[in-house]
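Entry type: protein chain
Record version: 2
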Amino acid sequence: MTRQGEAGDRGLYLRELRLALRNNSGAYGYSVMITGTLAVLTAVNRSPQVGQVFLFLLGAVLSFAAVEVLATRVFTKPMNEDEATKVIALGSSLNFASIAVAVGAAALVALVLPSTLSWTAGGFVASLVYLLTAAVEMAVARRIEEYRNLE
């Protein structure tokens, strides 16, 4: 393979790596958060019964659906897929804050509510807090990128 081919392959690989990061960064953060939430709820409430696992899933899904309904104005506005890759990368790099706040909110729910209710509310609250906090992170990233473009 020629040097130019190697450089081209490396460039292609880096482009595809950026695409993979762009397409998966939100899901990755959410996966880390929901796993952490499950661990925290288990630490406080002990291992869940099968029904409590499904209540946890229901809570997580309901909050996600509620945010989608609000963000799309009852599914009448499209999701913005034209977000700049730089904004997504920077916003996603700030994800630890939204993950930590969401898992902390679930821990608080587990400490104040009875076990079965905390499984449902914990999944709901954690997902809701994560999405709302991640939006703040993306807004901060957008402002940083706008500031960089002014220079």
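Comment: The chain has a mean pLDDT of 87.
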